[in-house]
Structure formats: C-alpha cells, structure tokens
Amino acid sequence: GTSAAQGRSAVLEELILQDPGQFRVLTGDRPTGRLHLGHYFGTLHNRMRLQNLGVETFVIIADYQVLTDRDIADNLTEYVEELVLDYLAIGVDPARSTIFTHSAVPALNQLMLPFLSLVSVSELNRNPTVKDEIAHSRQSAVSGLMFTYPVHQAADILFCKANLVPVGQDQLPHLEITRTVARRFNERYGNGTPVFPRPDALLSNAPLLLGMDGTKMSKSRGNAITLAADADETARLIKGAKTDSERFITYDPVTRPEVSSLLLLTALCQNRAPEQIAAEIGSAGAAALKRTVTEAVNEFLAPIRARRTELAQDRTHLRRVLREGNERANAVADATLAEVRTAMNSHY
Ligand code: ATP
Ligand code: MG
C-alpha cells in the first residue's frame, strides 16, 4: 500500500544520497495534454532532483498508451511537443536525461510479448488503477490494451533496466506488476544471473494531488492547473474550485479533502506547512483561501512559464532533443532485447 511505499521511499532517499550512481530512473507521461501541478509535485520535482544528483534518467513520452482509454489519439504530435516543452521548461536537461517516445523504440515494444506470458489474466483483472481508469475511460468499449498496459509499462521500465521510478500513488499497482515480471523473468530465464532489476517506486510528499473538482488532478479530466496556463486562467480555475460549507478553514485531508488539497498546493508552492496556512486564513473562509492559492501558484509558476514561452520559439530544437533521445533509447533497447533473446535461447 501507499504507506509502505512511503516508508520505502524514505529509505531510498538515503541510499540515493549515498550513491546516486547505483540508480537508474525511468519515468514518463502520456501525451494526452499538458503537464499540471499534480505532475509537478507528484513526480517532476523528484525527477529533476534525481537528475541533478547525477542519477541517469530516462523520460518516456508514452504515446502508444494514449490508446488505452480512448479510441483515437488526437493531436498527438502537438501534445508530444508540448510535453518536451514542459520538461525543458522545468529544467530537464537533455544532456543528462534521455527524452524519447514509445513508438520510436520498436525493440522496447517487442519486450512486451514475453512479458505478457509472465502474468495471469486474473492478476491483470485485479489492478485497482486499471479499474479506476476504465471508470473514467472515453473508450466505446474496454480494449485489450487497457488491460495489458501495466505490462506495457513493465517493458517501458525494464528495457533500460531502471531500478527507480518516481511516480504518483496511482502507479503503485503497476509497479507491482513490473516487479513481478522482472522476478519471474529472472526465475525462468536468468540461469542464476538476474537479467532485470526489481524497480522501486519513489513517492513524493504529494503522491495524490487533487484537482479543482476534488478528484485526482488529471490531464484528461478538465480539473487541472497546467504549468502552461496563464495567470488569469489559473485564477479562474481556482475560483471555481470545489470547497465545502464550513466557513472556518482547517487542514484535515480526511474529512475536508477539497479545502485541504488547496492548502497543500499553497504549502508546496511556498515550501511551508499547510496547517500554518490554514491558521493564517482561519475565519476569512474559502474566498480568502482561493486568493491565497492563486497568488502562491502564479508566483511559483511564473519563472517556469516565462522559460516555456521562450523555448516555444524554437520548435527545431524541440524536435532535435526528441530525435537524439530516441536514438539513445533505441541503442539501449536493442541491447536489452538481444540479451533477452539469449536468455530465452530463442530465434524469435
Ligand atoms: P491522464 O488523465 O491522461 O491519465 P494524468 O494526469 O493521469 O493524465 P499521466 O501521464 O497518466 O497523467 O501520469 C504521469 C505521472 O504523473 C505518473 O507518475 C502519475 O502517477 C503522476 N501523476 C498524475 N497525476 C497526479 C496527481 N494528481 N498527483 C500526483 N501524481 C500524479
Ligand atoms: Mg493517468
């Protein structure tokens, strides 16, 4: 569960600081829209920190996985470029981090086939995140890709032998499947030498940031504040945020999730404690809270937004970053696929 993963994350933090060279990170996002504050505080911030500590980092733009919960991938090229723009704006450094797209690395996808043979249908059926995503799906019917995408994700992570995956809470069940796939592959085909690591999730202190409607902030649920939004749009979104009928503002994530989430957002932007912000607002109520959040978010995002606007001028650069990232990812994936074939003693 989440609290076990949080405990493990604290241990990992120590190990990373002691020896960053032992770790390799894979993380990524689906090109279904622009990155938002849930991404930022859930995983992006951790990714940046790890990259800057010298941990080798791979960032996947999971374009094939767009098709898990919708029939057609709309505006794919645009969304992919917007993601690269978001990454560069927050400080992902293409010299140290490999940014690539799923579909540009065919060997990665070839790993999925043997991996699928390592999990049972009932294991896939039990996955709570898949159930939640089916509930929010825009698909006309649930596709096979929806059920198997945690295995697809195992291939995303294991192709580069990543052992550390900075993610939000919703990804924990998928990480469990990746760990199962790695263990079973090693047992079946490793001949005593493990081929794959068993990757750990790295949770941040905001593993599930809520959106303006009080459910998980998501690109495709229309409840997100994106990094790219302007100050006015941000103000409008926060003004419309769901709160509750209690006048006095208190921080209590269990009984007052919406109000507490706004307080947490402010706290994260200002690097302060949410309880303290609640105490300062107190009887001034929800309207004052919303003004405080708006100011904090806009101030926090201003430098990222300015950098983003500047970077958007040079589309050629964006495409070059992606081309070079794809090349590097392909070399790594080819090497892993060759190793897998040898281990399986196959002629596939
Ligand atoms: P979509 O609605 O299209 O699925 P999303 O907002 O869920 O988009 P993903 O690309 O699926 O974004 O997720 C990318 C990463 O960001 C994952 O590691 C996920 O756990 C994390 N993440 C997404 N939303 C949040 C959130 N609200 N709080 C914390 N982490 C999040
Ligand atoms: Mg998602």
Automatic annotation (TrEMBL):
Keyword Ligase: yes
GO cellular component terms, semicolon-separated: cytoplasm
Principal EC category: ligase
E.C. no: 6.1.1.2
Keyword vocabulary terms for this entry: Aminoacyl-tRNA synthetase, ATP-binding, Ligase, Nucleotide-binding, Protein biosynthesis
Family: Belongs to the class-I aminoacyl-tRNA synthetase family.
Record-given protein name: Tryptophan--tRNA ligase
GO MF terms held by the record: ATP binding; tryptophan-tRNA ligase activity
Cross-referenced SUPFAM superfamilies: Nucleotidylyl transferase
Superkingdom assignment: Bacteria
GO BP field: tryptophanyl-tRNA aminoacylation
Mitochondrion among keywords: no
Parts of the chain that traverse the membrane: none
InterPro entries for the chain: aa-tRNA-synth_I_CS (IPR001412), aa-tRNA-synth_Ic (IPR002305), Rossmann-like_a/b/a_fold (IPR014729), Trp-tRNA-ligase (IPR002306), Trp-tRNA_synthetase (IPR050203)
Swiss-Prot/TrEMBL catalytic activity: tRNA(Trp) + L-tryptophan + ATP = L-tryptophyl-tRNA(Trp) + AMP + diphosphate + H(+)
